[in-house]
Amino acid sequence: MSVYFIYPFIYNVLLGFQKVDTTSFISGKSVYNGLNNYRELFKLSAFSKAIKNTLIFTAFSILFQFGIGFMLALIFNRDFPGERYLRGLLLIPWFLPLIVSANAFRFFFSEQGIVNAFLLSHNVIDKPIGWLTNPNLVIWTLTMINIWIGIPFNYILLHTGLKEIPIELYEAASVDGAKGWHKLIYITIPMLKYVIITVLMLGFVYTIKHFDIVWIATQGGPANSSHLLSTLSYQLAFREYRFGMGAAVANVMVVIILIIVCGFTLFSSESN
Predict the structure, then answer these.
(1) How far is residue 94's CA from residue 96's CA, in Å, rounded to a whole number?
(2) Assigned domain for 11 exists
(3) Is residue 69 a contact partner of residue 151, using CB atoms and an 8 Å limit?
(4) DSSP per residue over 116-164, as a string?
(5) How far apart are CA 113 and CA 167, in angstroms?
(6) Disulfide: which of 2, 50, 78, 172 matches 232 by Cβ 3.0-4.6 Å?
(7) pLDDT digits over 19-41, tens only?
(8) What is the CATH number of the domain that holds 107?
(9) Is residue 247 included in any domain, yes or no?
(10) Which residues in 149-163 are b (16+ Cβ under 10 Å) and which e?
(11) In whole angstroms, what is the distance from residue 210 CA to residue 234 CA?
(12) Which among 161, 106, 113, 142 is positioned nearest to 231, based on CA atoms?
């Protein structure tokens, strides 16, 4: 913990208050510059864009990953023909390495890719759409990709939680005349309360720090229009060699994560 988490975390926080370029990074003689990195950061148009993109990417990913995952968990909570095979297919996005998924979707959503070819052949569009090259569209395309990848994670945790609910509760409710929606609202959701909080909290942490899909598919382009906080931090530190600025972006992201996680924790404790 000390070597792989505590020391890097403290070092990154300190790095955010220093002016560090390649020369000072190698020599170890960096200059303390207070809050200058953060002042410069908030003047960058790419930073404000990255915050907006991160909010869109995180909010919509969690909303649809959780919603679809919950729906699938309810469907697969009962036995029906082919249920095992369909459940196996459902887990494919989770088993695939992210580099494989990202490269596949980069091909699918290219202007000469499968998605445009399908839409053109069915006369839905009259010219190819720049799913990953249109600055106004790219973040939504990346969000769709991430939703597909994250659904199995939500499904597995919620499905496991559903299996722990005693079936006697549903049988007793049926005897009392409760319908499907009543069982969902008054039995399923209350019994899954802590599972739901955990799924949402983990989904938030995993999504807001997401890096792989965006970097592989677009590297933050075109013209910085698809940067998240994570990819912008990498861009500043390891492409532009402004290590202090890159650390500052990472520190902002850590603060956001801590605030939200503390919020989830307080909500969970107040619900006891």
Answers:
(1) 6
(2) no
(3) yes
(4) HHHHHHTTS-SS---TTT-TTTHHHHHHHHHHHHHHHHHHHHHHHHHHT
(5) 47
(6) 50
(7) 887 777 777 778 888 899 999 99
(8) 1.10.3720.10
(9) yes
(10) bbbbbbbbbbbebbe
(11) 12
(12) 142
CA gap 107, 125 in Å, rounded: 19
Question: ∠233-153-69 over CA atoms, to 5°?
Answer: 115
Question: Distance between CA 248 and CA 18 in Å, rounded?
Answer: 9
φ, ψ of residue 19 in degrees (nearest 5): -95, 110
> Could you give the number of structural domains in the chain?
1
- CB 198, CB 84: distance < 8 Å: no
Tokens of 83: 């249920």
Q: Whose structure tokens read 């290219």?
A: 110
State the pTM of this model: 0.91
List residues bridging with 18 in a β-sheet.
32
The Cα 152–Cα 195 span in angstroms is 15
Instruction: Give pLDDT < 70 ranges for the chain.
Output: 270-272
pLDDT in tens, 170-227: 888 888 888 878 888 888 999 999 899 999 999 999 999 999 999 999 999 898 999 9
Residue 12 CA to residue 254 CA, distance in Å, equals 11
Domain residues for the domain of 175 are: 50-270
DSSP β-bridge partners for residue 32? 18
CA–CA dist 159, 154 (Å, integer): 8
Q: d(Cα 230, Cα 241) in Å, to the nearest integer?
A: 15
Tokens describing residue 39? 């002042």
Q: What is the DSSP string of 88-101?
A: HHHTHHHHS-HHHH
25 domain residue, yes or no: no
SS3 60: helix
